Structure formats: C-alpha cells, structure tokens
C-alpha cells in the first residue's frame, strides 16, 4: 500500500494556484478553538480554529501517541507558506477530514522556523521517500517512537494532479497501521537509519581542504550561472545566490588583474545583481527582496519577504559595492535596510520574521498594478513615464491566477533612467525626480491596501544575520542609523532572549521558546562581531566571546570535531544532527567556523584556531563530495587559509582624521579582515588583545597598523597610504596564486 502512494507525495512546484485559495486568517468568524490558541507562533495560531485536534510538539502529544498506540501526523510549515494556507483551507478546516484525522492519529503542528531541528530531521525523511523532492507544508507520519514511515508535502482534498486526496491517504495509512504494523515498523527503522546517516557528516581521513578547493568551487558555480540573466536556475525558479556570489568574489582576489577568469567571476556577479535589482523579485516601490523568482528572468516573484533574505542579499550588494564602487549596489543595500527598519523592526528593537505572500486571498495582490490605477494616481504625464520605466502595460505583464481577466503588472525596471529621459525629451535629473515622486505617491496608495500578513515572532538566528548586515552596512555606507538599529536589536535579544546564561530561539508577546540551536548562537555571535567592528564597544566583543564559550560547552563534538545542531541537554530526538550544508540560510557550522577564526585573532586565543582547524578537518570529506552545498563554510576556509589582514587603528573615533582612516578601511573590498581600535583617550575601554598592544600614535596623529599573522607593516597615518597597504596584492606571496 505504501509503495503505491509514494509517487503521489512528490512536490509539484509548477502546479497552478487554486483560484479559490486564501489565507486561513481571512476566513469567517470561527466557532471553535483547539490547543493552538495558546501557541506563540503565528503559524500555529492560524490553525487554532481548525476542527483538527491539534497539539504542539511536546510531552503531551508524544505521551498520548504512546498510550493510545497511534501514529503521529506531523504537519510542518510556516506562516508565509502559500501552500500551507491552501491545505489548511481545503483539508484542516473541513470537519469531515478533521474527523478522520482525529480518529486515526495524534495530530501535531510545528512551525519550521521555531523548530528547525524537527524540520531538518523530517525533511530528510521526506526527501528520501520522494526522490529528493520536498517542501512545505510537510506531511509526515511517525510511529509513537517518532520514527517516520510515510511522508509527502501538499495533498489536495480529493484526488487530482495525479495524487490521491488527503482524506483517502489518511484512511489508507490508518488501515495499514492496523494490518501491516510489522512492515511499517521495519520501514520506519530503515528510514530512520538513512536519516541519521544523512545528517551526520562521515569522516574522511584523506580529504584536505585547500584554497584550490575554494577556487575550484567558485569555478564550478560560475560555470552553472545563467549568462543571460544571471543566477542559478532550479527548474523554473531562481533564488538569490548570495553565498555563491560571495565565494566567487572572494576567489577573484587570488587571480591576476585583468585575467579572463577573474573578469568573468565579477561580471557574472554583476549580471546577477543588476538583473535582480531591475526585476520583480525586488520590490521596486518599497524596497526589500522577495523570496525567489518563479521565472528565469527575475520577473515574477513568490511574494513573501523573509528577514534572512534581506540580511543575506543586502550583504552581497555591500560586498559588490566595495569591489566595483557601483552606486546601484549601494542604493539597493540602502533600500533593503530602509525597508527592514520601516516594516520589520519592532518598537522594542527586535526584527520580525516574515511578510506573507498573500493578502485578501491572493498572492501578490498588495504589490501589483494596472495601468489605469497608475494613471489615475499620477496623472497622464507622470503616469506614462512611470509605466514606461516600470513596464506597466495595458495588457499587463503578469497572469494573476486569482484574477486572470485583470491586466495586472509587476513593477520591474524595464527601461533605465537614461532611456526614459530620451523617450520623453527630459533631462536625466528631471526623469529621476519625477520617478522618485511617482514612487512616493504610489506607495501612499499601496499603504491603504490590505497588507500581507506579518509573522511577528522574533528569531535569534535571523536577527543575528540582520544585525551583522546592518552593522556592516552602516560602516560601508556611512549611515549611523543602520548601526544604531543593529545595536537596538542586539540589546533586545540580550535583554529578552538570554536567560540563565542560555539563549532562546524565538520570542513573541513576552513568550519564549525554551530551546535554542547552534544556528542561533552562531548567527548572534556574527552579528555582535560586526557590531564591535562598527562601534568598537567592547561589550559586543566580550558578549560574543561569552556566547562562543557556551557553544563550545554545549554543542562541540569532542570525539569527531564540528558542532551538533542541538545542545547536549536538548530533548532526545531520533538523531542529533551535525551538518555543514548551507540551504536558504548558512548552516550553523558554516557561520561558527568564521566566528572561531575571527575570535581567535581578535582575542589572541590560539585554542579557538585549533578548534576551527578540527572543524575544517571534520567536514573536509563531506565538502569534497559536494562542494556546492557549503559555500559559506568554504568562505571560512578561505579566511583561514588565505591569512586574513589584521587592522589595528589607534585614534579617537570622534576625530575626523580617525574617521578618514576608518572610511578607507570600510571602502576596501577585503572580506578576510579583522578590525580593532585603541582610543588613547579611553584606554580602559580597550579589549585585551595582542593586536592592540604597543600601538602608539605616530607624530601624534591617528595611526593604522596593517598586520598579518601578528606581523605588521610600517604604521601609516593617511588614507592614501592605508589604501596601498590594504590592497590584497600588496602582500608578498599572493600574486598569481591561482
């Protein structure tokens, strides 16, 4: 029976949306409630009025499954998931379907963003059972011992799309549980063993990571990029390849100036960033990046906005701006930051998780326009200019599945300012002014629409990434407000989500999720390190060092090296994973490798470098087998093996001369760099570090010491001299390495 059902579980990413689908939050007033009314997760609370007898994951549900000897139906999703809303509306709101579920199973709802440990484990089972295909909603059936035996993603309420209806699947699984228990248990044991093997990197004594590994991976990534529109194509979809581009740009530093391959790596990155910035995946009016594009031209996005995407994408635009000095990249980074501060930062300082894709029962309805709407708002003259620039046509540039007869358009920068200025016989300055005013007017109109749902839980990991990007962005762009916003978020996390010496992953309305994961610590440590280098406030570095010790104590694998995803005192699950693969966000091990390397230099602690070396050795075999899945980890390898530049600055940061030196540092594309400052006016505020010892002013002027492996060059006092020393090829032994 199970084998017959398996093909029906495969995800169908290109399947058309249901015309009648809608967010469960838009349903009529509910007449019943379930246990999820007490949940803190907005996603779980969306299901609080289902007739399904839902449990949160926890002792009560697991004990009931064991006591009643019932399978667990585990449904995992997240609040911005379109197909999660569809399945909820079609099946979980249906009393007849709920009755079958309640009779046969113990039903458990999980927010994947709150419990990435469960999502990671049971997604592996889903991928194994479905030939590498998975997604959300994730639908998994477990034995009372938590071992998976059957899994899929979205199921329609009745049989269609070549897959059986959900109620039919439930009944067949219930029947199989009664009649084929031994077969199910045997399959669950085998599947569980496969999951364990997939989530625990196998050691390889002969593997050894080198800079050649980094450069070869960059070459392979570049070879897979779309040379027309940029990016990496996954079927018909494109996700912003932030970590891949980071690795490609890093690799350019070891290639001779003018070399063809160096130019190609940079050009492919620019091509991708240019097309993303012009496409519908970027919110042309309000700023911010959508989750992914459903076509290869970055035109039609999946409209959800995730906090982590804002962090990762803004960061690669900053890197590209440092390398190319292209104003567009600074503008996009700044607009993403402004969007986050305006829409996703809570009054208390922490950052919310997500803006949904759906509003008023339709995906993208908030963001799209008809030509008539634009002309009515802007008037004929400015309206035509706006439509020409942003591709708002009379016939529309997008087929809205919820309203196929409407001629709607997704704004994208189809023609640049120069072209539009020539087309309408105006100056470039006038064109820019009128389009800027038009955007403000249309934003005001858009603000009166029903906005997509907001997932207002605050996640430690994602906040860490956003803090890091904002702190770095404030330094690179010379915008103090971004650094201040990052500091407010860090203060919020440390004041509200750090208790009894341990972090908590999620916060909402004063309620905390008790657990935290490697990625939470790693993400926050990264953010605090960036905040230190932006402010030189010792508390950020000292807190990062304290959190790092907690990570080592509770997550380090003493026997095999590397870090486990869950703490040693975490609840016992069917596997304690130790993974290095980067997905939508970098893995905890990837981020923590860079943290160890930076802290070892900033604190002068050689023991941390030893741990980093063990970590690289532990995952060398896994990465050699699959270079492409660990770009952020390889960025750490690049940092470790290319010998980072250490900059010690001596001077009062309030003085213009010191700021001029700092500005030169932040303008330089030098990803493998650490930065510290000694203020002679406040020596007690210094962090105790070998990098700051015996660093006097030269001729009474603010002075920069550029070092490598704690060996320094002649100190310099002018931005011009500093720029020469910061140039990567100023160091002997780095010319033409590749």
Helices and strands in order:
Elements: H1 2-5, H2 42-45, E1 54-56, H3 59-68, E2 72-77, H4 82-92, H5 95-104, E3 106-111, H6 116-129, E4 138-142, E5 148-152, H7 166-179, H8 181-198, H9 211-224, E6 233-234, E7 237-238, H10 242-252, H11 260-278, E8 292-293, E9 301-302, E10 305-306, H12 307-324, H13 327-344, E11 354-355, E12 358-359, E13 362-363, E14 369-370, H14 371-378, H15 380-390, E15 408-409, H16 417-424, H17 428-446, E16 454-455, E17 458-459, H18 460-477, H19 480-496, E18 498-499, E19 502-503, E20 506-508, E21 511-512, H20 518-535, H21 538-555, H22 588-602, H23 606-625, H24 631-641, E22 645-650, H25 656-667, E23 673-678, E24 703-708, E25 711-712, H26 719-726
Parallel strand pairs: 1-3, 2-3, 22-23
Antiparallel strand pairs: 2-4, 4-5, 6-7, 8-9, 10-11, 11-16, 12-13, 14-15, 17-20, 18-19, 20-21, 22-24, 24-25
Helix pairs in contact: 5-7, 6-8, 9-10, 9-24, 10-11, 10-12, 10-24, 12-13, 12-18, 14-15, 15-17, 16-17, 18-19, 18-20, 19-20, 20-21, 20-22, 22-23, 22-24, 25-26
